[in-house]
Amino acid sequence: MSQHERILTIGLIAFLLVSIITAATTIYYYQEYVTMERQYNEELAKLGLVSYTVNILLDNNGTKTWYNQTLIPIGWSLYNATVQVTNGNVNYSSVYGPSFITAINGVSNTGSYYWMWWVWNSASHSWTLGSVGADAYSLKNNDIVAWYFENTKNLPSP
């Protein structure tokens, strides 16, 4: 066998070894991915037994930010969920009973403009003004709630 044939043979063997190693590594990581995805879906299903999914809208003078598919523990109030989606950027006063929200994300109540919350009524396809303080409203699975910074002289708004 000539020197040239030997080099080609060694190159071919090296190429085949690299290809086999690459294929084996790809198969291994694919199997790991499938296992992890199955475990993730199992854990997500378990989480559904102890949590709700809600959608929350913050509307500050037309600037709308949706927090869709927000996972919250069962029993949480609108106040708790609002604190979660704003990373704690909520101020309130409890002087008048249930928490009265005074600011969200640095936007404070002023004059006749207040943060008001609404809940989507899927039966009537309309928004309903919240009738209690945010900490007294227990969220339900798939609730859609909205915080509007609005001129309370012009209620109802949404």
Keywords:
158 residues; alpha+beta; Ferric Hydroxamate Uptake Protein, Chain A, domain 1; 2 domains; five-stranded mixed beta sheet; 2 helices; 8 strands
Give an overview of the whole structure.
- The chain has 158 residues and is α+β, with helices and mostly antiparallel strands.
- The chain folds into 2 domains: 1-47; 51-154, Ferric Hydroxamate Uptake Protein, Chain A, domain 1, CATH 2.170.130.
- Helices cover 34% and strands 34% of the residues.
- The protein is built from 2 helices and 8 strands; from the N terminus they run αββαββββββ.
- The model has no long low-confidence stretch (mean pLDDT 91).
What is the count of helical runs?
A: 2
CATH class placement of the largest domain: Mainly Beta
Please provide the count of β strands.
8
Largest sheet, order of strands side by side? 2-1-8-6-7
How far is the N terminus from the C terminus?
Answer: 86 Å
Given as residue ranges, the uncertain stretches (5+ residues, pLDDT < 50) are none
Helical content stands at 25-40%
- Strand content is 25-35%
CATH structural fold name of the largest domain: Ferric Hydroxamate Uptake Protein, Chain A, domain 1
Radius of gyration: 28 Å
SS-derived structural category: alpha+beta
* Helix-strand topology string: HEEHEEEEEE
- What is the annotated CATH architecture of the largest domain? Beta Complex
Largest sheet data: 5 strands, mixed
> What would the principal axes of the Cα set say about the shape?
elongated
Q: Please, how many domains? A: 2
Mean pLDDT comes to 91
